[in-house]
Each structure stands twice: as C-alpha cells, then as structure tokens.
TrEMBL record:
Protein name as catalogued: TonB family protein
Residue ranges of every copy of the TonB C-terminal domain listed in the record: 151-240
Gene Ontology process terms (BP): protein transport; siderophore transport; transmembrane transport
Annotated organism of origin: Cellulophaga lytica (strain ATCC 23178 / DSM 7489 / JCM 8516 / NBRC 14961 / NCIMB 1423 / VKM B-1433 / Cy l20)
InterPro entries cross-referenced by the UniProt entry: TonB (IPR003538), TonB-dependent_transducer (IPR051045), TonB/TolA_C (IPR006260), TonB_C (IPR037682)
Keywords carried by this UniProt record: Cell inner membrane, Cell membrane, Membrane, Protein transport, Transmembrane, Transmembrane helix, Transport
Length: 240
C-alpha cells in the first residue's frame, strides 16, 4: 500500500514567518482596542458660569452716613452794656482764729511715769550670777557660786540614782541607751518645760518621771531678779 502523503511537501518550511505575521496582527488589534475612546455628543454647556458675565453685575453702593446738621450760631452780643449799681451790702464772714492767744494760760502736764515691763529671760545655768539652790545646798552658799554649782550637780545625781527604775518592757526587749533631758527651773523654783530625746519611748517616759519628782528649788537670779534657768543632763540606761 502506498502512502498518500507527498514526501516532497514540507509543512514547516515557512512556519516562523507565519507566526511572526500573526503575532504582529494580534498586537495591532489589542493596541487599537486599548486606544479606542467614545465621546458623548452633549452641547449643554452653561454659559452663565463665565467670569466676565459675573463681573458685569451691578453692585449696590454703600449708603452714605448722614451727619447731623451743625448747631445754630450763638446769639450776637448786645451793642450797649448797661451798668447796674450794686446797692446790696454783702456781709463779710469773719474767720475765728483757732490758735491760742498769748494771754491764755497753759496748764502744766504732769510728768509721765515710765513703767518697767518685766521680760522673761532664760539665763543658762553655766553663766547665771546666782545659781538655783537645790534643797540641802543652802549651807554652802557662803562658799561661792562654784560650790553651789558642785552641790547642785551632786544632789541631782543622787536624786536620779534614788528614783531610777529600768522599765521592764525595755529590759525584755534589750533596749538601752542615753536619754537627753532638758528642763527649766522657773522663777518660782518649780520645774517646767521638760523635754526628752532618747532611743526609745519607754526610756523617755522613765526619764520624765524622774525629773517630775524633783523638789522645788530656790530660783536663780540675774542682777538681783529671779529668772528662768534651763538645765540639761543625760540619763543613761544600761543593761547589766
């Protein structure tokens, strides 16, 4: 059986040329499709929006402010001036002199008595002229101020040792330390203005109790006048 195909026929001879032509034709059609535009036939353009026409409109002018009319001129002065005689008598007012006359007697003013106002002054224990006297130190008064100061300090230490009691709660907690005490010997010899500063409130409370038991003293004097005398001392609390 013989084949029907012609062996001399070559179908792929011009295939590349046909492919290039077809590709160019397709690209042309796509380009024309993208560039295609359609415009609506509409001639309804509003000619009233022209700027030139808007400028031709009449603008109303600002009304003028009406000013009031000028005041009428003053009346003219008369040509002749009539002289009128002044027959009315005017009483002159008399101003009385308020200053004293030389003939008046000036009363004598009594001499002004200046009253001395006592000012409370605190004089430290170390510099006061007459130191406060602790009860029992009267016998050393003749020996001078130094002997009185030494006796005062000795009596103060004895008083503290006599009334000293270590707070139980401070002992249980192991609290110890020094309490600084400051008080004032008043002008009547009493003790006041007690202040404490220490490491614990219980120790401060005990120090205040000891100072509160101090007896009334003979007040200190400065220039012969009783004054307040501040005094400071430490009270040491130490566990054995």
């Amino acid at each position: 059986m013989e084949p029907k195909k012609n062996p001399q026929a070559d179908l792929t001879k011009n295939s590349s040329l046909y492919f290039a032509i077809g590709l160019a034709l397709v690209m042309f059609i796509v380009w024309r499709a993208l560039e295609y535009k359609k415009y609506d036939e509409d001639n309804t353009y509003d000619i009233t929006q022209n700027v030139d026409d808007m400028l031709d409109e009449e603008v109303p002018m600002t009304e003028q402010i009406k000013t009031p009319p000028p005041p009428p001129p003053p009346p003219a002065a008369p040509e002749e001036i009539a002289v009128v005689e002044d027959d009315v008598e005017v009483e002159e007012s008399v101003i009385q002199d308020t200053e004293s006359d030389e003939e008046e007697e000036v009363m004598d003013v009594e001499d002004v008595v200046e009253e001395e106002v006592e000012v409370d002054v605190d004089v430290p224990f170390s510099v006061i002229e007459d130191v406060p006297i602790f009860p029992g130190c009267e016998k050393v008064k003749k020996k001078g101020a130094k002997a009185l100061r030494d006796c005062f300090n000795e009596k103060m230490n004895k008083h503290i040792r006599k009334h000293f009691q270590y707070p139980e709660i401070a002992q249980e907690m192991g609290i110890q330390g020094r309490v600084s005490v400051r008080f004032v010997i008043q002008k009547d010899g009493s003790i006041g203005q007690v202040q404490m500063r220490g490491p614990d409130k219980n120790l401060e409370k005990e120090a205040a109790r000891i100072i509160g038991k101090l007896p009334k003293m003979t007040p200190g004097k400065q220039r012969g006048r009783a004054v307040r005398v501040p005094f400071s001392l430490p009270i040491t609390f130490r566990l054995q």
